[in-house]
Amino acid sequence: MPRPIRAIIHPHNLEHNLAVIRQKIGQAKIWSVMKADGYGHGIKRIWRGLKASDGFAVLDLHEAVLLREEGWQGPILLLEGFFQAADLVVIDQYQLTTSVHSRWQLAAIEQATLSQPISVYIKLNSGMNRLGFSVSEYSDIVDQLTHMANVANVTLMSHFANSDLPGGTQVPLEKIQHFSSLSLPTCIANSGAVLWHQNTHYDWVRAGIVLYGASPSGKWADIAEYHLKAAMTLQSEIIAIHHIEAGQSIGYGSKFTSEKPMRIATVACGYADGYPRHAPTGTPVWCQGRRCELLGAVSMDMLTIDISDCPEVTIGTPVELWGENLPVDDVAQFAGTIGYELLCALARRVPIDF
Ligand SMILES: *Cc1c(COP(=O)(O)O)cnc(C)c1O
């Protein structure tokens, strides 16, 4: 028997979440963002659940090639563009749309030998200071690219640092609106902007985390009203049960000491599975229809929960670490992070069913 831990991917929930997002954005088209192997879910497993998307946005060339080999014929966007000029051969061969964020990329495009012109997304740095051209140089860059024989069409692209906050898109949006006279197709909204800033939707949105059923803010309560569903459930089982007396400690570092007699259970899941080691005592774990609490330190392969109030729990009882019953954001918040990180960090050793 393998260890009882496994992740389950829910294609119908992806489909559902995509439909929810579609409702929010009117006529705009959707790039479903699948970087980091589909936020840890596995592009191969999930792309069909999202095949009603207008396009897929990825990071690495190999992710784009995988999608083509899987049979996706629609648009594919390289969110960070190409990393070297030689990548343009692959961009040409697989008909990918590339973002352009640095001047060296203009020369590379101009000098490339392509079978047909490519579509480019020109990145504007609207304040995040990560990638993109500054407001002062942007018009010139657009002008250069639009006049290149190797360029078919250009789209204005930018990215928000604070779309999960009220008013968080206002200042960058003003910079973007600077260029409305260029009448370029525009793509700026990420998940937070899709949900909370309607005036950012424009022609295409780039939806990531909401498709997987987690919150752009890292707080489940912020998205509860949209009824998004978890695309991944991480589950395992109880492999041991103990009774401890008051004054006994649990796990490495004896980080938890009981104040009263308790019934505790050992779960086959640890940080080597991608469960956050920083999750403290009190982090919720779903067991037999209710939230139980994590006790003490998370080990490499195991963690311990309090089942004092769950007399019916036995060895072999299923446990959900996050998923359809327990939002990944609720676990992440205890561990001082966001759902994004936990989903992306699911370890290779965890078998995945779908
Ligand atoms: C990751 C990413 C997105 C999607 O972000 P979410 O918050 O997951 O919706 C959109 N655009 C760019 C450029 C990204 O890197």
Question: Any descriptors?
Answer:
isomerase; 354 residues; EC 5.1.1.1; binds pyridoxal-5'-phosphate; 8-stranded parallel β-barrel; 2 domains; 18 strands; Lyase, Ornithine Decarboxylase, Chain A, domain 1; single chain
Walkthrough of the structure:
The chain is α/β, with parallel strands linked by helices and 354 residues long. 25% of the residues lie in helices and 25% in strands. The strands form three sheets. An eight-stranded parallel beta barrel has the order 2-3-4-5-6-7-8-9, surrounded by four helices. It is elongated and about 75 Å long. The two termini are 20 Å apart. The chain binds pyridoxal-5'-phosphate.
Number of strands: 18
Distance between the termini: 20 Å
Please indicate the percent range of residues in DSSP E strands (runs of 2 or more): 15-25%
CATH topology of the largest domain: TIM Barrel
The portion of residues assigned to helices is 10-25%
The total domain count is 2
CATH class descriptor name of the largest domain? Alpha Beta
> So what's the overall shape?
elongated
Work out the oligomeric state of the chains in this entry.
Answer: single chain
- Which distinct ligands sit in these coordinates? pyridoxal-5'-phosphate
CATH superfamily membership of the largest domain: Alanine racemase
- Mean pLDDT score, rounded? 97
The secondary-structure class comes to alpha/beta
Which stretches of 5+ consecutive residues score pLDDT under 50?
A: none
Q: Give me the side-by-side strand order of the main sheet.
A: 2-3-4-5-6-7-8-9
Largest sheet: 8 strands, parallel, barrel
- List the total number of helices: 11
- List SSEs in N-to-C order: EHEHHEHEHEHEHEHEHEEEEEEEEEHHE
- State the CATH architecture of the largest domain: Alpha-Beta Barrel
Radius of gyration, in angstroms, nearest whole number: 23 Å
Modified residues (N6-(pyridoxal phosphate)lysine): 35
Keywords: Isomerase, Pyridoxal phosphate
GO biological process, one term: D-alanine biosynthetic process
Pathway: Amino-acid biosynthesis; D-alanine biosynthesis; D-alanine from L-alanine: step 1/1
